[in-house]
Amino acid sequence: MSNPGAVIAILLACGLTAVAASQPATSRVSAVPEGGIPVTDEETRRACGSCHATDDKHIMTRISHRRASPENWELTLRRMMSLNNVNLAPEAARRILKYLSNQHGLAPEEARPAMFDAERRLIEYSYKADADVQQLCSTCHSMGRVLNERRTREEWSLLLAMHRYYYPLIDGSSGGFRRSGGGGGSANAQARRSAARQEEGGERRPPDNRQPFERAGDHLADAFPLRSEAWTTWSAAMRAPRLDGRWTLVGHQLGKGRVFGEVVIAPDPDSPDSFVTRGQ
């Protein structure tokens, strides 16, 4: 599909209905770690504050120490509703999702490599930076979901701990988070591959005895940190997208062939960075 179509896909993704909580905010300053991105939206603080502590600089536990794509934030909001009894009207959920996607999201340079995930394109993607991380994560979901995350080191560790809590069988399964004895599972294969790479390179380092999930956590914290030059530059110059106008849509639909059409995008008079879309 051409670029206009991709732009429309992103716009629609940002407008998806999500869920959050409408509960009174609380402040437990001592529980909040230092650093992070302030949560400046009062509605978000109010909705999430019963579980996420906030300090006087509006730094919230968990939320302030993560950035993610609209799709990943939506998954989180849905999980809050389904597992933590969060209740919020769709309109308010959209506003919270929009705020998190904009102010705690990704710079274009960060989002571009994983755009295939947002666009739901079926491609044979291979994460070249670390084959063990690719094996560990893509056993259950697309690597695009990982590429669409930016977290502090502690947050990456907490995310992996959450996976082990919700899905305890992943510790010993194929592609498991932990090595189990002397078996020949995928986790042990990762350790053997690492040792083989050291041998081939003539390296003389002590063996890496970390568990697979520990190695993955260290790699992810280094590769996808909360702070980045791209985000610093983008967030300082962020502005509303200029999408209004008439766009030509060209694409391909499975079973039908080529698709051609026209999409008209008009700004919402009540919200300068929201749009109304119609097409034919």
From TrEMBL:
Q: Where is this region: Disordered?
A: 178-215
Which Pfam families does the record cross-reference, listed alphabetically? Dehyd-heme_bind
Query: GO terms for molecular function, please?
Result: electron transfer activity; heme binding
Composition-biased stretches (Basic and acidic residues): 196-215
Query: Locate the Quinohemoprotein amine dehydrogenase alpha subunit haem binding domain: which residues?
Result: 45-171
Signal peptide bounds: 1-20
Which keywords annotate this record? Signal
- The identity of this protein, by name, is Quinohemoprotein amine dehydrogenase alpha subunit haem binding domain-containing protein
Q: What is the lineage of its organism?
A: Bacteria, Bacillati, Candidatus Sericytochromatia, Candidatus Tanganyikabacteria
